[in-house]
Write a structure and sequence with these properties.
Elements lengths: L1 H28 L6 H10 L4 H25 L5 H20 L4 H19 L16 H18 L4 H10 L5 H22 L11 H20 L5 H19 L3
């Protein structure tokens, strides 16, 4: 008699997780990101096993970043010269990071720290922007920064946009909305490289992946529309930042 009740509770949890992912996709894609840190945070709050979290986040990231990249490029909010040096450094390192299988006691705290960094970015008191006129990044420095971001991305199952966007804006290497388009394409390429680095991890994808995919793609449709039209979402982004803090500390304290 308990089995139908347990199945109903499980279904409700899956739908609630999908709804949370939808909201995360709306908010993240409004600034050109694909939402991996939000998806990982939600999965952590729902106690999804670590072995499932990374490949699921990467697959969802690829789906969302593909659509987000298309929308921002089509809107003219992209500059290849800004992007390619970062990709030169990032892609091989993201592949390497994806290949490395960290034990849960190392993976969870590392992802927790990444989520806390993402939360700081979302809770920043004002929009990140430089007072200087933007200029192209030095090639050697962009390649080096891309390599560091790529390795972190591959290890954690994120796309690296949460690191790249502040870097572009703080150092005046891009205008604000163009940085969103650059970040979107960077996240797409990084996520593909990370997943290819450990293609065997797709065996751990959850059976509810189609539900999650539909949720985040719908969120991306709404979020990119908001981002391209410059509608502000600061209050809700800060609420998401608080969620990332809770999930980050949960992962750090899990072991």
């Amino acid at each position: 008699m308990y089995k139908p009740v347990l199945m109903l509770l499980s279904l409700n949890a899956e739908l609630l997780l999908a709804l949370c992912m939808f909201l995360g996709a709306v908010l993240y894609t409004s600034v050109g990101h694909a939402g991996a840190s939000a998806y990982i945070a939600m999965m952590a709050l729902f106690s999804v096993p670590a072995v499932v979290m990374r490949p699921t986040a990467l697959v969802l990231n690829i789906l969302v970043a593909s659509f987000t990249s298309f929308r921002f490029i089509k809107a003219g909010l992209f500059r290849f010269r800004t992007l390619w040096p970062f990709l030169v450094g990032a892609l091989p390192m993201a592949f390497l990071g994806g290949y490395i299988q960290l034990p849960g006691e190392f993976y969870r705290p590392l992802v927790g720290v990444v989520l806390l960094i993402a939360a700081v970015r979302l809770l920043w008191p004002s929009e990140l922007r430089s007072n200087r006129e933007s200029s192209d990044p030095p090639l050697w420095l962009a390649v080096l920064a891309g390599a560091v971001i790529g390795l972190l991305s591959g290890l954690t199952g994120t796309g690296g946009g949460i690191f790249l966007s502040p870097l572009l804006l703080f150092l005046a290497w891009s205008e604000t909305r163009t940085a969103s388009g650059v970040a979107a394409v960077f996240i797409l390429c990084n996520s593909v490289a990370g997943l290819l680095g450990n293609i065997a991890s797709v065996k751990s994808l959850p059976p509810d992946l189609p539900l999650f995919a539909a949720a985040v793609l719908l969120g991306a449709v709404i979020g990119t529309t908001l981002g391209i039209s410059k509608l502000a979402q600061q209050g809700v982004l800060k609420a998401l930042g608080l969620v990332l803090i809770v999930a980050g500390f949960k992962l750090i304290g899990a072991y």
